[in-house]
Amino acid sequence: MADPRRQNKILRYKPPSTDTNPTLEDPTPDYMNLLGMIFSMCGLMLKLKWCAWIAVYCSFISFANSRSSEDTKQMMSSFMLSISAVVMSYLQNPQPMSPPW
Fold first, then answer.
1. What's the pLDDT at 21?
2. Distance CA 93, CA 87 (A)
3. pTM for the whole structure
4. Residue 53 burial by CB count (10 A; 0-12/13-18/19+): exposed, middle or buried?
5. Which of 52, 99, 45 is nearest to 78 (CA)?
6. For 12-58, how does the pLDDT look when each residue is reduced to its tens digit (9 = 90+)?
7. Which DSSP category does 26 fall into?
8. How far apart are CA 14 and CA 84, in angstroms?
9. First to last CA, the chain
10. Are 49 and 86 within 8 A, CB to CB?
């Protein structure tokens, strides 16, 4: 029994390049990374616990939506900054977080 597939019709998959079609580039990880850093700095400087927690949330979203080929140094620095914002805000004031309103 022979292989029914035609060898001349087999094409290897190549992902579409973002150079020819810039709409395929997803800016969500970059925006979440930037928001995470902004909220981390607000959490550190203003001692707002909810800002620090939002920074952690943004860092997780940035990590989850990133591609494996992207640079992880910036993402890890944003994540560590948000974790340090949470830790420092609870070290300075260990009481539970009060709602922002």
1. 67
2. 10
3. 0.73
4. middle
5. 52
6. 888 777 676 666 677 888 899 999 999 999 999 998 999 999 999 99
7. -
8. 41
9. 74
10. yes
Cα Rg for the chain, rounded, in angstroms? Answer: 21
- The residue type of 21 is N
What six digits make up the tokens of 75? 């993402």
Token pair, residue 56, equals 């952690």
Give CA–CA dist 88/65, Å, rounded: 27
For the chain, give the longest Cα–Cα distance: 75
Q: Which burial class, exposed, middle or buried, applies to 47 when counting CB atoms under 10 A from its CB (0-12, 13-18, 19+)?
A: middle
- 3-state class of 14 per DSSP? coil
Supply 25's token pair. Answer: 């580039």
Cβ atoms within 10 Å, residue 90: 14
